[in-house]
Structures are given as C-alpha cells and as structure tokens.
Design goal:
- The protein has about 250 residues and is an alpha+beta fold.
- It has one domain: Creatinase/methionine aminopeptidase superfamily (Creatine Amidinohydrolase, Alpha-Beta Complex), CATH 3.90.230.
- The chain has four helices and 15 strands.
- The chain has helices spanning about 10-30, 40-50, 120-135, 145-155; strands at about 55, 70, 75, 90-100, 105-110, 160, 170, 175-180, 200, 205, 210-215, 220-225, 230, 235-240, 240-245.
- It has a five-stranded antiparallel beta sheet.
- The longest helix has 24 residues, at about 10-30.
- The model has no long low-confidence stretch (mean pLDDT about 100).
- The protein binds 2-amino-4-trifluoromethylsulfanyl-butyric acid and cobalt (II) ion.
- Cobalt (II) ion (CO) binds near residues 106, 200, 202 and 233.
- 2-amino-4-trifluoromethylsulfanyl-butyric acid binds near residues 78, 97, 108 and 233.
C-alpha cells in the first residue's frame, strides 16, 4: 500500500478545498427545512463551490450526475438529489466534495429536517460522537486500527449498526486514495499514520442492522431493514498533535 504524504503547498490547497466544502455545509444547515427539495440543495452547493473558485468533485466522478450526494432517512450514501420535498422529521445526509487546483476536500454531515424524533436525535449525536472518537486517536505514530476501533466502540456501546461495505479513505489529488478506513477493527489494521497524510474519516451508523443494498438507479445505497442511517465525515491531516480538520471554517 502506498500512501502519499502531502507537502506544505499541497496542504494549503487542500485546506482551501476543505474550507469551501465547509462553506457549503454552513449553507446547507441554513437552508435545510421542511418544503425544500434535495435538488435545490444541489443547486446551492454547486453555486457556492463555483463562486469560491472550486469544482464539484463528485459531478462526473464515475458518472455520478450531481454535485452532492443527498441521502434521506434509510438511504445511507450516494443518494441522487431530486424533486423530493423534505418533510418535518426527515434526516438527510449531504456529502460534499470540492476540488481546488487539483486537490479535494470531502465532508459529509447528517441534518435533521425541522423537529426530529428523539431516536433520530440520538442517532445523529452518536454518529458525530463516533467521528470525534475516531479523530481523538488520529495522530502521527498512531495505528489506523485504533481510529477504527474507537468508532466501533461508540457504535457497539450504543447498539447501533455499523455499515461495513463503505468507509473512510485517503484524500488528495484523488477523492479516493489509500488507505481504506474501516469503521471497525480489522485483523490487519496495523497501518501507522505518518505526518502529512490526509485521510477522510467517516462513520456510517444505523438504528438497525448493517446490511445494505444498491437501488435500481445503481447509486443510492439503502439499509436492507429500512432503518435510518447517519454519516459524519471530515477530511483530516495527520499531525504530531492530532487531527487537523481540513473541512472546517
Ligand atoms: N464523498 C463520497 C465519499 O465520502 C463519495 C461520493 S461518490 C461520488 O467518499 F461518486 F458520488 F462522487
Ligand atoms: Co469520503
């Protein structure tokens, strides 16, 4: 496995890509409410990315036809923006990637639409908690399996399902670089994090099981048991002091 370590200049570009991704999320947070379509979210995201001298990295990636992935309720990842109208109580994951001068920032966040149930609040809080538990282990010299394990522990302690077919990944010139990051401990997880690596950490947890299937559009991934899923992701730089989150303001 060859994992690149970014130069100071490359990190500057990635930080700018990440800043713009964070700007998109700030805007999503403001506009997500009952009555809004997911296509509108896509249009706004496209405009924010373009206004900030970036390109939408997902648009055209392996043929993906939109700027954002918009995954509602039991949809886990890769949902298509559409004329679907968000309603009170829905949860929606917006996954955003932007490219600045060839370098990618990648971050996903799950939002509640209006008032959501206590059960869904708990799902969102704990999935975000799992992300930060993973990031608390993320630093120079640490083992990637410990990042994965911290995520797994939050899920298990709270009886949440862990999506197994998808996970985090290196990010840089490509949206998906090595290493793959499992959201649970694996037998061969002794990969050592080194200063300058840039990796997206992204737990995907559910209120039910961990089985998923891909819908007829060949993209949208849903839970088999239709349980709701949440997904929180940041692109992070490995430093001696811990995770330097690139996808924030
Ligand atoms: N942003 C997603 C990730 O976290 C990938 C989106 S896949 C695409 O890896 F094809 F829609 F771009
Ligand atoms: Co990602």
């Amino acid at each position: 496995m060859s994992v690149s370590r970014k130069s100071g200049y490359e990190i500057k570009l990635m930080r700018e890509a990440g800043r713009v991704v964070a700007l998109v999320h700030q805007e999503m947070k403001n506009i997500i409410k009952p009555g809004v379509t997911t296509k509108h979210l896509d249009d706004v995201a496209y405009q924010v990315i373009k206004d900030n001298h970036c390109d939408p990295s997902c648009l055209g990636y392996n043929g993906f036809p939109y700027t954002i992935c918009a995954s509602v309720n039991e949809e886990v990842v890769h949902g298509f923006p559409s004329d679907r109208v968000l309603k009170e109580g829905d949860i929606i994951t917006v996954d955003v990637c932007a490219t600045f001068r060839g370098y990618v920032g990648d971050s996903a966040w799950t939002y509640g639409v209006g008032e959501i149930s206590d059960e869904n609040k708990r799902l969102l809080e704990l999935t975000e908690k799992a992300l930060y538990a993973g990031l608390s282990k993320f630093k120079t010299g640490a083992m990637l399996n410990d990042v994965s394990g911290a995520i797994e522990d939050v899920a298990n302690e709270n009886h949440l399902g862990i999506i197994r077919q998808y996970g985090g990944h290196g990010v840089g010139k490509d949206m998906h670089e090595e290493p793959f990051v499992f959201n649970y401990r694996v037998p061969n997880g002794n990969f050592e994090l080194k200063r300058g690596m840039t990796i997206a950490i992204e737990p995907m947890l559910t209120l039910g099981g961990d089985d998923v299937e891909v819908m007829d559009d060949e993209w949208t991934v849903v839970t088999k048991d239709k349980s709701y899923a949440a997904h929180f992701e940041h692109t992070c730089l490995v430093t001696d002091d811990g995770a330097d989150i690139l996808t924030k303001l």
